[in-house]
Amino acid sequence: MSILFSGDFHANEINELSYISRETLVGKYSREEYSGIAWHVILGDGGFLWPHKQKTDEANFMALSKRPFPVLCIVGNHEPILGRNDIPEVDLGLGETVYQIHDKPLVAYLKRGKVYTIGGFKFLVLGGALSIDKGWRKPSVSWWAKEYWSEEEKEDLFALLEKEHDFDYVLAHTGPNTVNVELFGDIMPGSPKFKDEVAILNDEIDSRINCRGWWCGHWHKDRYFYDEDRQRGYQYLYKGTNIL
Predict the structure, then answer these.
(1) How many angstroms separate the CA atoms of 114 and 213, rounded?
(2) For the chain: N or C, fewer Cβ within 10 A?
(3) What is the pLDDT of residue 138?
(4) Closest to 216 (Cα-Cα) out of 7, 20, 39, 16
């Protein structure tokens, strides 16, 4: 059984559903590969439960229900659940509980700073990033109060990494800042995304762990970088999808 990865969804704001629809996936992958997908991971900015957009959610859930596998979301920066305290936690048998936002199809958010075992792989789950579109004159203004990691979350994460530092992969929204600059510095010079506290935090995390690679979204580009020194890859997705 395999895991499908895709980039930001934004509640299908600009037709991102077309990248992950049943028709697109069946056309891209063989029937055997498609039938083997057990989980779909959206790498942040799922954008579900946006205030006053219930009909949008209903349409998206209907489209996603045509596919036979559940959806797990990484917490991005455009996430209304960051402003809510009423999302139920459920145990899906992945090692940690998740925030479930829909039943059929099952759609849930993974908690940042936690370790999950999905499809036989051990994942360190991170999340969050800088919003640059809340206010163009003040790009550091957050959409939600919990958009950035709290000090308690950071302390808990680094306490975890003192005991546990070997993972198969990292699931994040943005990548380490050094990799972001390597991949996007030429095409987005001067972007405020290079002054992102979360990406800088990811640099520190990246230096403390062993893993095969990172999966990221956020940049709205499909890019890959392989670090020869650390022998790990960094896959960023938006319009593309990959199967692990």
Answers:
(1) 17
(2) N
(3) 45
(4) 7
Among the listed residues 81, 88, 78, 4, the one whose alpha carbon sits nearest the alpha carbon of residue 39 = 4
40 — phi, psi (to 5°)?
A: -120, 125
Specify the pairing of strand 121-125 against strand 169-171. parallel
Contact 97/87 with Cβ under 8 angstroms? no
Give me the domains of the chain, ranges plus CATH numbers: 2-243 (3.60.21)
Assigned token pair, 221: 């580009």
Q: Are 181 and 200 in contact (CB under 8 A)?
A: no
* Dihedrals phi, psi of 151, to nearest 5 degrees: -60, -35
What is the reported pLDDT for 37? 98
pTM of the model: 0.94
Rounded distance between C-alpha atoms, residue 117 and residue 239, angstroms: 26
pLDDT tens, 23-54? 999 999 999 999 999 999 999 999 999 888 99
